[in-house]
Amino acid sequence: MLKIELSWQDAAVTSACLLGTTAAIRLGGVVRRRGGRRDGGAAVRDDGAAVRDGGAAVRDGGAAVRDGGAAAGDGAAPRRSRFAGAVAIAQESGVVVGLFALWQFAGRYATRIPGGALARARWIWHAERVIGLPSEAAVQRLFLPYPLVVQAFNLYYASLHFVVLIAMLAWVFLRHRDRYAEVRGVLVMLTGACLAIQLIPVAPPRMLPLDGMVDTAVRYGQSVYGSFAGFNADEVSAMPSVHVAWALLVGITVVRVSASRWRWLALAYPAMTTLVVVVTANHYWADGIVAGVLLALSMLAWDAGAAARRALRRRLRPRLGGSPEPEPEPAWLASQDTPMSPRGTA
Q1: What is the model's pLDDT at position 141?
Q2: What pLDDT does 324 receive?
Q3: Whose CB has fewer CB within 10 Å in the chain, the N or C terminal residue?
Q4: How far apart, in Å, do the first and last CA atoms of the chain sit?
Q5: Confidence (pLDDT) at 108
Q6: Element (H, E) at 147
Q7: Are 106 and 195 in contact (CB under 8 A)?
């Protein structure tokens, strides 16, 4: 397996460089707004119309000039578009790497908080039995006789969550750009809430001495607790499960954004992730439940913020001489029968 040493400090510096560079480019005016290009195009069209009014000879000359300008424009426009796209991707990469740095930092900081991780873990274990949730140990025992399945689960836990999240963000960014800010905002709030709670240490099930669970990653030499693929994971940050939180965000985003009839299959991903984190003894059922609650709160917070911004614009517009605009439906509550974006339907 490829090992990449990337501390939270390195990730933070990388994120700062990406965000700082893209901010400097935008402030410097290298990436121009489309509105300016449209205004310039309108002026050229007006000039072309005036030339056409001058006569047949002028029309012929104007046509030749327009053809030459179009050829030059055709070469420059794709370059500007590609550069603007590269700047936007660099900016979003900076945001994701920044979240990565924050996750690593929170994991390292949690180990400095005085004890109680095992006591909290025992409390969660007993609380789950009181409310009637199935035993994680009993579920794990169903899979232990199948080593290949367990090893596949270990690999799933170690690597898939970040890859799938990035793939989902790229898909929304490229195919449904109008929804990207919303998805990114919910991701930031959700991850921040998870990391704030993870500052309180909670031991995972595999560390409890009396629960009968097996550390499957240690058994098969696949433990990620060390330096693995750039992630120095913390062993006492079980509550809540960021794996489950991100998987739920991926599944719900696909269902909300896509218009495909197959979009509901995306919900199998968070279900599978929940099973994997339990079978590998890394999380309790309660960790996934809390992750779901935090996601719901993040989505509600985004909608509340969007509603507040619309209300503020309505108050300010009359003072600026503008006309009120209709209030759109909150994005997360939008109907699924209508395609969400003109960029694509899947």
Answers
A1: 95
A2: 53
A3: N
A4: 33
A5: 62
A6: helix 147-155
A7: yes
Amino acid at residue number 150: V
Q: Are 201 and 120 in contact (CB under 8 A)?
A: yes
Using a 10 angstrom Cβ sphere, with 0-12 exposed, 13-18 middle and 19 or more buried, the burial of residue 52 is middle
The sign of the torsion formed by the CA atoms of 219, 221, 226, 230 equals negative
Residue 321 confidence (pLDDT): 59
Distances (CA, A) of 122 to 128, 209, 304: 10, 10, 37
pTM: 0.70
Specify the DSSP class assigned to residue 282.
Answer: S
Alpha helices in 258-284 (DSSP H): 268-279
229 touches 5 (CB < 8 A): no
What number of other Cβ atoms are within 10 A of residue 48's Cβ? 16
Q: What are phi and psi of 228, to 5 degrees?
A: -145, 120
- The rounded distance, in Å, linking the Cα atoms of 72 and 305 is 44
Q: Which class for 25: exposed (0-12), middle (13-18), buried (19 or more C-beta within 10 A)? A: middle
DSSP bridge pairs for 341? 344
CA distance 231 to 5: 8
Give the pair of three-digit tokens for residue 198: 């993870």
Q: Could you tell me which of 273, 333, 281 has the C-alpha nearest to residue 306? A: 333
Averaged in consecutive runs of 10 residues, what is the pLDDT profile of the chain (346 residues)?
Answer: 54 81 77 48 49 48 50 58 74 75 64 70 94 94 96 92 90 92 93 88 85 88 58 67 95 95 96 96 95 97 92 79 54 46 46
pLDDT of residue 21: 84
* Other residues' Cβ atoms within 10 Å of the Cβ of residue 254: 21
Strand partners, 237: 202
Please state the length of the chain: 346
